[in-house]
Amino acid sequence: MGCGYSRCCDDPHDYYSCSNGYRPIYPDPVAYQSINGALRYYDCQGYGPPSQYHPSTQQGPPPEWAYPQHQYPVYRKTKRQRDNENAGALAATSNILLASAAPAFSSRSTSKLQWGPCQSTNTTVTAGLQCATLPVPLDYQDEQCNQTLYLNLARSPAEGQSKGTILVNFGGPGLDGRNNLVSSNGVPVLGLSEYDWVTWDPRGTGTTLPANCYSDTAVSTNASAAIPFPQNATVPEISKAWDAVTNITSTCKDTLGVNGTLIGSAYTARDMLQIVDALGEDGLLRYYGMSYGSALGQIFAAMFPDRVGRIVIDGVLNPHQYITGTDYQQLATTDAVLDNFFSSCEARPEICNLTMLDTSQQSLRQQFNNKLDKLQKDGPDASFSPLLRYETLVSSVLATLKSHARWPQTATLLYAILSDNKALYTKLSSASAESASGTPQAFPGVSANSFGEITSAIRCSDVLTRIPDPAADVELAKPFFPQSRFEGGLLVAETHIPCMLWPFKAKEQYTGNFDVKTKNPILVVSNIYDPITSLDAALNASATFHGSGLLVQDWYGHVSTTGVSKCMASHLRDYFANGTLPERGTVCEADIPAFYIEEELLAAAKSVLSG
After folding, report:
1. Taking every annotated instance into account, which residue ranges of this chain make up the domain Peptidase S33 tripeptidyl aminopeptidase-like C-terminal (predicted)?
2. Alpha helices of 27-139 — where are they, by DSSP H?
């Protein structure tokens, strides 16, 4: 089977191997040296799928388990939705109730959401929001199940006359919707305040079947902290993480029970369809999905292509790798973002304390690498309080690389570590812990367990693959490590291995394919350098959805909203207003520097809002 776009077959930057139609294991690094190089992948494809094959996680034909060859089902109404059209409403006395009669959930619901004041623990921060409750089937596949799940929704009304509703998922997976809508001040995407923004707590989060594997937060935190990050794809290294993760997944199996099978993106996509119908607008989804929300958006678009109005996926996961648990493409530009962190520090010494050690990007990166190597070799450094562990340092740095707002604080923390300033390290660690625990959630009932458990409950319910033992996992884990010198082991330990061991599969899993033509084209958004969802993965997603558009921002960070760009805001307005896609090759510059002060951020935001 040949390359779908033969004019690119001789191009070394061709995103697909023309000899067999499959994605090479690693991209040509030259392609990441410039904007044009990075976009060359996309230019070779145009819009739509490049061939009949989907990108593979390895050279040659994909394993049979990765892309099942059976006839894919047509996802429309379930039998429940076709049959149960005359049932009555249920009174909610708890999150899940038994119904006295089968509830009505037709494909075009006639129910309307009753918006009112939000019941929250902090009415000051939720004063501008409205809340509602929507009943949906607990189990879309069980024809005998008469149980109902109540979704708690929150809405941030538009400024002035509303142009419609945009549903938003903030990612994770595991981030609840309502509290994150509060933290985004009601408008998750700058420049789109003329729309109503609606969110909800997806299954597994908040008050919606919360995936609490442990009743004690400290026990949960300690269990997650006990997972070592493998240093390479060998049986001894994989086994260490495997054993620690097994302790968690065994607890989750006992605790979650049947609810573990009711958490997954296919059911969440069906919940989204219920929300769309209950809104009573045009029956089409307008959606903004960030990070994991990009996977959810792609699954919705593949399941319900005729219900796509406007879908933006931002900070994109490769859908093929996502459903097989082999998404090492997440890390394709992680190390490049870290290098930018150090070089940007060099450019802003007045707000980056690391320059007190050295002003050279190369020297700063080498000192950081040396500290990682020492922690790997010698184990945790007990001379620091709290204990300085390799895993803690790696996790903290990755979390920081996602959001530039935290870069100056992390630079100070790294200065304390690299200069052996233990008093400063303790002071900064204490301040960080107090900040994390000092602000209560606005909405009660949010699960208090480790974020990692919720992530696994959702993500791993979607993953088709299970592996019986560490030895069998070595080959699948191997591609993660060359992608990033310091984050490959983290992703293997925190996302890959848990999914290989996860005791549940969702009762409905979307198994593919994503070679889909939607009613209206979706828009794929990516930074050129994203530390955890690479442009490489975004190009894959754009290639597989027919007619999709691509909008790229010249920025280092996770999802485009971590930057501020008048250009980005303009294109997003045009897309949501009338479906206009950016021209191929469009790259927007960010209007703030990598290391910025608050005044620079506010000035850039003001410029965006001024139009």
Report:
1. 493-588
2. 35-45, 79-83
Dihedral sign for Cα 266, 269, 274, 277, please: negative
What is the DSSP annotation of 346-387?
Answer: HH-TTT-GGGGT-S-HHHHHHHHHHHHHHHHHH--BTTSSS-
Length of the chain: 611
**Alpha carbon separation from 170 to 320, 403, 551, 584 (Å, rounded):** 21, 14, 19, 27
Domains of the chain: 1-611 (3.40.50.1820)
SS (H, E, C) 440-495: CCCCCCCCCCCHHHHHHHHHHHHCCCCCCCHHHHHHHHCCHHHHCCCCHHHHHHHH
Q: pLDDT of 242-290, one tens digit each?
A: 999 999 999 999 999 999 999 999 999 999 999 999 999 999 999 999 9
CB-CB contact of 557 with 402 (8 Å): yes
Distance between CA atoms of 566 and 401, rounded to whole angstroms? Answer: 22
pLDDT band at 123 (very low <50, low <70, confident <90, very high): confident
Beta bridge partners of residue 310, listed in sequence order? 286
The whole-angstrom separation of Cα 591 and Cα 526 is 16
- DSSP for residue 104: P
User: Which residue stretches of 379-441 are H helix?
Assistant: 390-402, 407-418, 422-438
Q: Which two tokens stand for residue 252?
A: 């989750």
Q: Residue 232: is it exposed, middle or buried by C-beta count within 10 angstroms (0-12/13-18/19+)?
A: middle
The answer to whether 108 and 306 are in contact (CB under 8 A) is no
DSSP H helices in 226-360: 235-256, 265-279, 292-303, 319-324, 334-347
Question: Helices in 130-258 by DSSP H: which ranges?
Answer: 177-183, 217-225, 235-256
Percent of the chain with pLDDT over 70: 79
Token pair of 515 as six digits: 């070679």
**Could you give the C-alpha distances from 457 to 120, 205, 210, 428, 464, in angstroms and in order?**
26, 10, 9, 32, 13
CA gap 3, 15 in Å, rounded: 10
Distances (CA, A) of 114 to 126, 152, 490, 589: 17, 12, 44, 41
- Among 251, 179, 255, 176, which Cα is nearest to 208's? 176
* Gap between the Cα atoms of 81 and 577, Å rounded: 31
Alpha-carbon distance of 291 to 495, in angstroms, equals 14
Please state, as a whole number, how many other Cβ atoms lie within 10 Å of the Cβ of residue 60. 9
Under 8 Å between Cβ of 198 and 155: yes
Q: What is the pTM of this model?
A: 0.83
313-333 burial string, b = 16+ CB within 10 Å, else e? bbbbbbbbbbbbbbbbbbbbb
